[in-house]
Amino acid sequence: MPSIPIKPDRLLGDLQHLRSFGARETGVVRPAYSKADIAARQWLAGRMAEAGLEPVFDPVGNLFGLPAADTPCMLSGSHSDSQPEGGWLDGAYGVIAALEVSRASAEAGGPPVAVVSFQDEEGRFGALTGSRVWSGALPLDEADRLTDLEGRTFAEARAAMAGLCAADFVRPDRFTGFIETHIEQGPVLDEAGESIGVVDVIVGIRSLQIRFTGHQNHAGTTPMAARRDAFQGLVAFADAINRAFAEIVTPATVWTIGHVALQPNASSIVPGQADFTVQWRDGDKDRLDRMEEIVRGTAERVCAERTLHLDLSNHVAVPPTGMDDGLRARLESAAAETAPDNWRVMPSGALHDAANVARLMPAAMLFVPSIGGISHNFSEDTDTDDLIRGAEVLALAIAV
Ligand SMILES: [Zn+2]
User: Fold this and answer.
1) Span 247-271, pLDDT tens digits
2) Which of 16, 89, 271, 281 is the most exposed place for a label (fewest CB within 10 A)?
3) How far is the CA of 319 from the centre of ligand 1 (A)?
């Protein structure tokens, strides 16, 4: 039994209530700074106050619930904004689990626990905007110039919360560490029938935009040997990197050619140009480097063999973020006690606020299963028992 006894009915009741803001089918539509998002944050602030926490909206709308005592304490939470079509648990679960552990700890005479719901984790203005600004990774004046798909600026969007927000950011030195609880959003735990994942690393991401330029020509009169077909180059490239990656990857490594545009993209024309993206993710920087050598080397070789011109652009590199060893050990022993033989250590293939908070303080994460591995979808769900168990593991790790 956790020494901070959480109340499952209260945890589940609050989760269901949060779900009512922006409810659509079985999911939610609650993008950052929308009416539903702001209403949800105001309700959360009220629940924080009822739990004895002081609710504070910082200048970008991150909502903190701060214990009365000014002595440094643990911080836990996630985000309560959603994708344009989101599930009811993505982010919301980590915020409500933290809230429940905080008030259960207060009731049990345990340590004070601060709670946070970061703003715009889902990236209306890029990605993880609220925690990027709070962690110092993104200066506020730069953030203010970011625009969403409709051309509205971040400054305009956050003005919708101006009446609620404090002038200053919450000082990070109020907190000794950060634990984020989240749904896995992938199939690993669900397929293994396991309850808890303790994250060892939030994977790094690399991506490149690639253009193969050949020669556009008649699809009936141009002999195969005379073609400089950009699409055939792309196919050869995709096959070659799959084979080369197989030698160096782990089962957790992923790579994607996710966007392809052919010119002129017509059935009777040999494609003259292929634009595509290659993105790869892994928890190990050296492996990311080796994969990048393969991507670049393969593109050069394929283009040389097929007389195509090669352009590489938009190189993106987000480094892997290792979780704090001490906090991770606490989560591992809490998982071993709460879900014996039913948990694992695993990487996070998705980015999370914890990756930004790790710039400021020790940070760690735990996962509960996503049924069928489904997320960013109205049908996203998790078994009730797993929702309770995840909060119990968080409580136990914080009580230590
Ligand atoms: Zn999330």
Assistant:
1) 999 999 999 999 999 999 999 999 9
2) 16
3) 19
